[in-house]
Every structure is written in C-alpha cells, then in structure tokens.
Amino acid sequence: MDFKNIIYAFACLSFAVVVGAAVYEHVAVVPRWSAAPPVSLSMFQGKYGLNPTPFWKAIHPVTLLLLVACIILFWKTGSRPYLLITSAGYVFVLIITFAFFVPELIAITGQAFSGNADPSLTKRAGLWETLSLVRLAFLIMLAITAFLGLTRSGVRLPN
C-alpha cells in the first residue's frame, strides 16, 4: 500500500467516524433530549453537562482536509468522481448543518430547565430529529460513495 492509498484510507476512516458519531447520537442521545423538552434537556445543563461541540469542531476540519488531499492525490484516477461527489455532498451537509441544525439545536437545548414539557418545543425537537435523520442517511450514502472510490484508486483516467 502506498502513501496515497493510506491518505485515502484515513479519509474514509475519518468520514466513517463522522457517520458513526452521528449514528451514536441518533441512537443514544437525540431520543433522550428530544423526548419532552425542556424537562428532557437536563443532560446538557450544569457544570458536567454533555458538550459534543469539541468533537465536531475537531472531526469536520480533519475530514475535509483529508478529502481535499485525496482529490489532489487522485485527480487523474478513477477515484476522482467518487471523491468529488463525497466532498461536495459533505460541504453541502456542513453548510446546512451550520445554517439550520446547529442554531436550532442550540435554541432547543439552551432552554431553561422546567418541570413541564413544552408541546411546541417538543414538536420542534421532533422536526429537528426527523430532518437530522434525513441528513444522516445522506451522509451514509456519501460514505459508501467514498469507500467505492477506493476500488478505483489505481485506475488512470484517459487524458
């Protein structure tokens, strides 16, 4: 295995970490906080509240850098279309994430604790969860695309 393929493997691994973390959040975290906000938001509050921000702030730039490095390294190979689709789709997801998902998540989870569920807040949390599952499905398709490109890394494109 040469250096280029190692970089590609790390790009796929990094992208898989993004997908895996998103799956974990949707299985273990989102159903808990979205169940009955603001009552169900206690996991985010207090000195030791859950704060996934450092993880997401670290993994996204690393994944983007690895994908860009792969585009450069594999430009003249059959992997190029797979990498371009994956990278463009990922950038699209990140734009939507920072334009809608992050602000809405902060607005919902930043609510003050209350002993009563707020039906309108619960409805917003449900919509956020549904749309985020669509986003996750799209990320899974992008990850599969990236992995499929690994099989084309040695194929040279015609000039």
Annotation, overall tally of beta strands = 0
- Poorly predicted segments: none
In percent, how helical is the residue content?
over 70%
Structurally, the number of domains stands at: 1
Number of helical stretches of at least 4 residues: 4
In terms of structural class, how would the helical and strand content be classed? mainly alpha
Our Rg estimate from Cα atoms comes to: 19 Å
Strand content: under 5%
- The secondary-structure element order is HHHH
Q: Termini, distance in Å?
A: 25 Å
Global shape: elongated
Q: How would a textbook summarize the main sheet?
A: none
How much is the average pLDDT? 94
What would a concise description of this structure say?
By secondary structure, the chain is an all-alpha fold. Helix content is 72%, strand content 0%.
Please provide a written account of the structure.
The structure is a single chain. This protein has 159 residues and is an all-alpha fold. The chain has one domain (3-150). Helices cover 72% and strands 0% of the residues. It has four helices and no strands. It has helices at residues 3-33, 53-73, 80-109, 119-150. Helix 1 (3-33) packs antiparallel against helix 4 (119-150), helix 2 (53-73) packs antiparallel against helix 3 and helix 3 packs antiparallel against helix 4 (119-150). The longest helix has 32 residues, at 119-150.
